[in-house]
Design goal:
Blueprint (H helix, E strand, L loop, with lengths): L15 H9 L13 H4 E3 L4 E2 L2 E2 L20 E2 L2 E4 L2 E3 L4 E2 L4 E2 L4 E2 L4 E2 L7 E4 L4 E5 L3 H12 L12 E4 L2
Parallel strand pairs: 1-6, 2-7, 5-8, 6-9, 7-10, 9-11
Antiparallel strand pairs: 3-4, 5-13, 11-12
Length: 164
C-alpha cells in the first residue's frame, strides 16, 4: 500500500469509509478524479449503502454493536458488482449478492439476492423492470480510442468486492 493520489483500485479499502464517518461524524465516499472512464465503469450514487455484514435477526442471537461477540452471529458474505454497474441513490445492497455486469439499480432499490446481467432493476425488493443495452461497450471503445488507449483498459479491476 502507498499514499499516492489517486489511489490504485487495488489499494482502495472501502471499509475505511465507515471508520472515517464514525470518527469525524460526516458523510464520506470513495472518489477518483482520474481522466478516463474508471469511475463510470462501476458507480455508486450518493446515499447508497452496501453491506457485507448483517446481524442475525432470527431471534436466536442478540443484535447490537455493543453486545459481546459471543452473543452475536453476524452474517458475513462478500458483495460483488461488475463492470458497467450503477447503484442508484439511497439503494441498499445486502451481504452475499452479486450484481451482474451492466446492471443498473434505480433509486431506493433493495437488493437482497443476486441480480442477472444487463437489466434495469427497481423496487423493494429489487425486480427487473427493463433490459439495459450493451451499447456501453461500443461507447467505452470509442472513448478509449479518443484517449489513444485503443485496447488498454484504464481500470484494472473487473469487479469490486466488499468483504467483512
Amino acid at each position: 500500500m502507498h499514499n499516492f493520489y489517486p489511489v490504485d483500485p487495488l489499494d482502495a479499502h472501502i471499509r475505511c469509509m465507515k471508520t472515517v464517518r464514525g470518527h469525524f461524524g460526516v458523510d464520506v465516499g470513495l472518489s477518483d478524479h482520474n481522466l478516463g472512464i474508471g469511475v463510470s465503469i462501476a458507480a455508486t450514487a450518493l446515499g447508497a449503502q452496501v453491506f457485507s455484514e448483517s446481524d442475525d435477526y432470527s431471534g436466536n442471537r442478540l443484535t447490537n454493536p455493543t453486545v459481546y461477540t459471543k452473543f452475536k452471529k453476524p452474517i458475513c458474505s462478500p458483495v460483488t458488482w461488475n463492470k458497467h454497474v450503477i447503484i442508484g441513490d439511497n439503494s441498499v445492497v445486502f451481504p452475499g449478492v452479486e450484481i451482474g455486469e451492466g446492471t443498473a439499480l434505480g433509486s431506493i432499490t433493495l437488493v437482497n439476492s443476486s441480480l442477472e446481467t444487463w437489466g434495469i432493476y427497481s423496487s423493494i425488493p429489487a425486480r427487473r423492470i427493463k433490459e439495459r443495452t450493451t451499447r456501453l461497450f461500443d461507447l467505452e471503445a470509442q472513448y478509449l480510442e479518443e484517449l489513444g488507449k485503443k485496447s488498454e483498459p484504464i481500470i484494472h479491476m473487473i469487479d469490486i468486492k466488499i468483504f467483512c
